[in-house]
């Protein structure tokens, strides 16, 4: 590793003690940048790397709210505004008990380069809370969201910081937060949030975008070796929006999704999941994959408490799409996937594969797409929503989906071109990291020491 990167990584660890996920995200980026700094010594001389690793602003605040029984709870809210050199801060809000400042910083750091890869004018940020929406009534979620926004609103704006949804934050939560923002500011500033409902400024395909984009990128990646998703057996972890709509697009592209999961267990259908039933049960009825498996009867196997990667042997899949959460796929599971004929893996979640698992895939010459490239479809469509809000337009589903496909294909091409330029053809990790970093770094140099 370049000496400047070694020094900066040690500085990141010292300045951010205990934030292991943030350290991991920075290390993954730095591992790809030595040749970049050799070719561009001004990046080191003008401390571009050091500046990129320090957020422009970190906001931590108290979120008090009252449940339906009159009990008061206190959660912690976060917003890390990481880098705005390419445009207003852009990135989702995550509501989950596991959320810490470490979580938000790693996600925000990844978001800088993911957003840069889209080619759209958006910077990188992330936020959320350790609030758990599961099991809470609509009224409780509304009160929490209103309290959360009562503090955060002062840091947002359509040209300043534009949040969206993430884990635990869907159209319902966005609606409550946008309503409170509008109430406090006395402005209908539609572009301050993305992921809105279609009746009040939302974009078509936004719900599907991350999953659709993931499948499109995976298909493009397979095409580089003269293959495609057609006829491939696919494992998808998770059953949120990303997983559900990755499943759907894989099916449209001719693949067969045979296994998925949620936090309680995994389900395997040897002849392929009933995607319409799964979407109905997870998205509309808010049930578990166990309920899906019960409904399917003998066509399905439910594995209580198992993560989906433990089904590698029986699933016999050629493609894996981890779409659940960070560091969910480990070395042992990676070896099992490779042993059972894996050809390609693309990250639908942010950093779902551990470094050891990635090493297994690289050694086996499995095509591997990091999340900052493969799952950029969601934020790309959020930026398209911002464009529609700014112009007062509402594009058709087909028009928006076509634009999403064009963006994902261009991201794929940029990764391929950059990897070839740096002498590592087919290395999507180098391609994605370097292409994203170079765009941000050059803009930072152009704007001086800020």
Give a summary of the structure in a few sentences.
By secondary structure, the chain is α/β, with parallel strands linked by helices.
What does this structure look like?
With about 450 residues, the protein is of the alpha/beta class. Among the domains are: about 55-190, Rossmann fold (3-Layer(aba) Sandwich); about 205-370, NAD(P)-binding Rossmann-like Domain (Rossmann fold), CATH 3.40.50. It is built from 19 helices and twelve strands. A seven-stranded mixed β-sheet has the order 9-8-7-6-10-11-12, sandwiched between helices. Helix 9 (about 205-225) crosses helix 10 (about 240-250). The two termini are about 25 Å apart. The model has no long low-confidence stretch (mean pLDDT about 95).
- Percent helix among the residues? 40-55%
Identify low-pLDDT runs.
none
Biggest sheet architecture: 7 strands, mixed
What is the CATH topology descriptor of the domain at 207-369? Rossmann fold
CATH architecture of the domain at 207-369: 3-Layer(aba) Sandwich
How are the strands ordered across the major sheet?
9-8-7-6-10-11-12
Total of DSSP H or I helical runs spanning 4+ residues: 19
CATH superfamily of the domain at 207-369: NAD(P)-binding Rossmann-like Domain
- Percent of residues in beta strands: 15-25%
Q: Please write the CATH class name of the domain at 207-369.
A: Alpha Beta
